[in-house]
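User: Can you recover a sequence for this backbone? Please restate the input before giving your answer.

Assistant: Of course. Working from this structure:
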């Protein structure tokens, strides 16, 4: 049995395809919403500094009618306490995992 770390994002790279599918099912938003969110945050943070809140993430979720309370709770459980932390703590493992998954 693998030792499960507390944050889902830390387990992502060890998950099988089936586990990843179940993980995606459990999220309050779709895989491509998450990836678009990363792109949106990168675009915004190139122009403005992070103000240590999820303001751009919130803007994205409002514009795309996503569930902000559930999504921000998931981001924070995985270390994404503000816009720059989402990119730093969540985006790299996410991208490594799903780039491999697509191959
Ligand atoms: Zn920040």
């Amino acid at each position: 049995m693998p030792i499960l770390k507390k944050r889902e994002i830390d387990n992502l790279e060890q998950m099988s395809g089936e586990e990843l599918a179940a993980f995606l099912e459990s999220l309050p938003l779709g895989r491509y919403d998450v990836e678009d969110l990363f792109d949106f945050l990168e675009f915004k943070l190139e122009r403005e500094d992070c103000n240590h809140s999820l303001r751009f993430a919130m803007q994205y979720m409002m514009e795309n009618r996503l569930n902000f309370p559930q999504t921000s709770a998931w981001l924070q459980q995985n270390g994404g306490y503000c816009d720059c932390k989402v990119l730093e703590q969540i985006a790299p493992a996410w991208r490594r995992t799903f780039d491999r998954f697509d191959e």
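That completes the design. The first helix runs from residue 8 to 11.
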